[in-house]
Design a protein that fits this description.
A five-stranded parallel sheet has the order 3-4-5-6-7. The chain is globular and about 45 Å long. By secondary structure, it is an alpha/beta fold. It is built from seven helices and seven strands, in the order ββααβααβαβαβαβ. α2 packs parallel to α4.
Length: 184
């Protein structure tokens, strides 16, 4: 989170402004590099005598505008090469908004990113414009069920059935499902 004058400025406040001004491009590059460098340190066991951490991955949010920027795939390739990432170490999370643009270009970029070793996740699944057609046509590895479907899952049989349906659908498409907002 960004702190300014003693207050936390949340992503809902600054991300739209960063996208509008074009600052999302350098911010996105910095976030990707920083996350990959940190994961590399964890995996190398920095600070614990070199024993290394168990194999883990890191997820990085990518704005639709950033994905479609011409230099994004080369940036990811350079970042992975410099930090030793790949082979599923990094999950690039995209909101369903990426599906609203040029679907063929998005598919091409996602395929290139997967060829580099990135996994692709659709974040906030179920809240926007995604359809089964998009999940079928795009190279997606993970769908993240939005927290609005998880918050009342313990008490709402409707939410339970909805989550079970998404999980069953994803399994049939060989897509992993994660849920946001799991607190218990």
């Amino acid at each position: 989170r960004w702190q300014r004058d003693g207050h936390v400025v949340g992503p809902d406040d600054f991300i739209p402004l960063a996208e509008h001004t074009g600052l999302i491009v350098p911010i996105g590059a910095w976030v990707l590099r920083t996350a990959c460098e940190q994961l590399s340190r964890w995996q190398a066991g920095a600070g614990d005598g070199g024993a290394g951490a168990p194999r883990m991955s890191v997820a990085v949010n990518v704005s639709p505008a950033r994905l479609l920027h011409d230099d994004f795939v080369p940036l990811v390739a350079d970042t992975f090469a410099a930090t030793g990432m790949g082979s599923g170490d990094v999950v690039l999370e995209l909101t369903e908004g990426v599906l609203l643009g040029d679907l063929d270009l998005a598919r091409q970029r996602l395929e290139q990113l997967r060829a580099l070793g990135a996994r692709i996740a659709v974040d906030d699944f179920g809240t926007g414009y995604a359809s089964l057609t998009y999940l079928h046509r795009l190279p997606v590895d993970i769908v993240k069920l939005d927290r609005s479907f998880v918050t009342d899952i313990v008490t709402s049989s409707r939410d339970q059935r909805l989550a079970a349906a998404v999980v069953a659908m994803a399994r049939h498409l060989d897509i992993m499902v994660t849920a946001e907002g799991v607190e218990t």
